[in-house]
């Protein structure tokens, strides 16, 4: 996360909304002294008093064999980003920067059993198919008998038990209002521009 507190978000409401809106994450871990990353689609769940993030990987992924013994990991979800030109500021002698939105979740990872993996896949497809409405929902029951079970053998599921959740919403909050609004004008219709205008409200 960005070290500047001005950009840090710790309120769980916006962070969970962001994760659910950007469910394709980068998973990073160091296992056996080797740094590894994977990209995975996720489902965010509240289980009793715990926040968990369920995912699945191809069994060919470098991290997959380590899921059984577990490891600590960080998940990174990223959203919109934009280059900000110094020409857009009212103030002189500025430098280029980048505005962006991201959320990190850190915790221990454990393997899912088969029933939990199937639940993750069903929930994930339902979650993503809902975004395609009014298209009728696809479900695995549309597959030929035995096909889903055969494909299931090629993946493995994991669950991240979240013990740290924080975000960086860098929207020129460290600039004067004139500079921030100037940068927002420069970005035109970019999705971050509206958020930058609202950052000082």
Question: TL;DR of this structure?
Answer:
This protein is an alpha+beta fold. It contains five helices and seven strands; from the N terminus they run E-H-E-E-E-E-E-H-H-E-H-H. The model has no long low-confidence stretch (mean pLDDT 95).
Properties at a glance:
201 residues, Pnp Oxidase, Chain A, 5 helices, 7 strands
What is the percentage of strand-forming residues?
Answer: 35-45%
Following the backbone from N to C, one meets helices and strands in this order, namely EHEEEEEHHEHH
Write down how many β-strands occur, each being a DSSP E stretch of 2 or more residues: 7
CATH topology: Pnp Oxidase, Chain A
* The CATH fourth-level homologous superfamily: Electron Transport, Fmn-binding Protein, Chain A
**In whole angstroms, how far apart are the ends?**
23 Å
Name the overall outline: elongated
Mean pLDDT: 95
Helix/strand/pairing category: alpha+beta
Number of helices: 5
Q: CATH class, please?
A: Mainly Beta
Which residues form runs of ≥5 with pLDDT under 50?
none
Numbering strands along the chain, what is their spatial order in the largest sheet?
2-3-4-7-6-5
Query: What CATH architecture do you see?
Result: Roll
Radius of gyration: 20 Å
Number of domains: 1
Taking the sheet with the most strands, its summary is: 6 strands, antiparallel, barrel
Q: Indicate the percent of residues in helices.
A: 25-40%
Protein name: Transcriptional regulator
